[in-house]
Amino acid sequence: MEQLKRRIDTIFNSSHLSDEKLQKVCQLLQDEISYYNWVGFYFRNGEKEELILGPYVGAETDHTIIPFGKGICGQVAVSNETFVVPDVSAQDNYLSCSIETKSEIVVPIFKNGENIGQIDIDSHVINPFTKEDEDLLEYVCTRVSEVI
Ligand code: SME
Question: 65 with 50: CB under 8 angstroms?
């Protein structure tokens, strides 16, 4: 994980535009962690209480706009807390992106103390996420808040 963090640093320290950095980080995470099958960012739409899909890798999703409170992502927009879902079939308030998705983790991004977006990972494996994943993704979110 430390080596992966250094590769993430290299992307953030590069001269790419911020959306390109986010796209490259999505690709790196999906390439390096076998159970990360969809990796993407959602950001708050200005003052509106909705999230808009940002850079991502993985299957196309219908959920390009998510109202606050809806699905796992919408709940994190309101709770300001990381949400680990070991088994999506056990969730009532869940927006399905692909029938292959078995689990999900969503980590909020804070800038100046405000919840401005999140990273969302879907996995085809049940219950794969550990504290190490939370730690890695929180690290990514901190780096993201520095470039946007
Ligand atoms: N499953 C998410 C929707 C986004 S897709 O996974 C890409 C949710 O319940 O909010």
Answer: yes
Task: With both helix axes pointing from N to C terminus, report the angle between 2-12 and 18-32 in degrees, rounded to the nearest 10.
Answer: 160
Q: How far is CA 123 from CA 21, 49, 99, 143, in A?
A: 22, 27, 11, 23
Could you tell me the distance, in angstroms and rounded to a whole number, from the CA of residue 13 to the centre of ligand 1?
A: 29
Q: Which amino acid is at 59?
A: A
pTM of the prediction? 0.97
Sign of the alpha-carbon dihedral angle for 24, 57, 30, 134: positive
Query: What are the extents of the domains in the chain?
Result: 2-147
Topology annotation, domain 2-147: Beta-Lactamase (3.30.450)
For ligand 1, the distance from its centroid to the CA atom of residue 15, given in whole angstroms, is 30
Atom number, ligand 1, closest to the C-alpha of residue 94: 9
CA 22 to chain centre: 10
> pLDDT per residue over 89-131, tens digit each?
999 999 998 999 999 999 999 999 999 999 999 999 999 999 9
Residue 82 in 3-state DSSP? coil
